[in-house]
Amino acid sequence: MCGRFTNKDPQAIYEEYKIDIRANYNVTPSSSILTFTDEPEMMLWAYNPTWAKKPFNLINARSETLNEKPSFRMAKRCLIIADGWYEWLREEKNKQPYYFHFDHKVFSFAGIYTEYNGINGCAIVTKQAEESIKHIHHRMPVILDKNDESTWLAGKDHIASNVSMNIKFHPVSKMVNSPSNNSDNCIKELSA
After folding, report:
1. Looking at 78, 87, 122, 186, which residue is catalytic?
2. Burial level of 126, CB count in 10 A (0-12/13-18/19+)?
3. pLDDT attached to residue 2
4. Does the structure show a pLDDT above 80 at 186?
5. What CATH number has the domain spanning 4-186?
């Protein structure tokens, strides 16, 4: 599951994609987010099958069901641009947020999208978590290596990637739980 992520380095994103965005330390579902198909495009982070009578607003799509579920049959592929994401460790009544990143570098999630009522909406593709992080959460986003981005867009699956072995993570403040909090305090490591 990936329910929040970051785009905290607008300069690095501009250098890579030639598009200006504002720094965002707490990207939430239903936001307009930076994606890439054959060019950069802002899309709604809420996937809806074209045939749905009421919005589904899915934010994640399990890699294991991409070719099975009717909801995903008409999906096209995209890259969802990020430089980190959050997961929550549940311990009894407590949910501790953790921030995951690759030395704070820009990367892409595997994504799918469709048009629904004239608006493109997308979801992050997820998989079983890597051994090193599954004690925090059993699912994680599919992270694409730069070399795999174009083949993902062309329809080839890249669910296992060596880039996932380089994940760094640390606990962060529960302030990230509120969508109204959007500062670098969201990603600061909690002191022990």
Report:
1. 87
2. buried
3. 84
4. yes
5. 3.90.1680.10
Does 122 qualify as catalytic in the annotation? no
* pLDDT digits 0-9 by tens, 131-152: 889 999 999 999 998 889 999 9
Supply the pTM of this predicted model: 0.94
Three-state SS string across the chain, please? Answer: CCCEEEECCHHHHHHHHCCCCCCEEEECCCCEEEEECCCEEEEECCECCCCCCCCCCECEEEHHHCCCCHHHCCCEEEEEEECEEEEEEEECCEEEEEEEECCCCCEEEEEEEEEECCEEEEEEEEEECCCCCCCCCCEEECEECHHHHHHHHCCCCCCCCHHHHHCEEEEECHHHHCCCCCCHHHCCECCC
Name the residue ranges covered by the structural domains of the chain.
Answer: 4-186
pLDDT tens by residue, 160-178 = 666 767 899 999 999 999 9
Residue 20 pLDDT exceeds 70: yes
* Catalytic residue check, 16: no
Catalytic hit among 2, 78, 122, 186: 2
Distance CA 60, CA 30 (A): 12
Contact 38, 96 (CB under 8 A): no
- Contact in structure between 98 and 170 (CB atoms under 8 Å): yes
d(CA 147, CA 159): 13
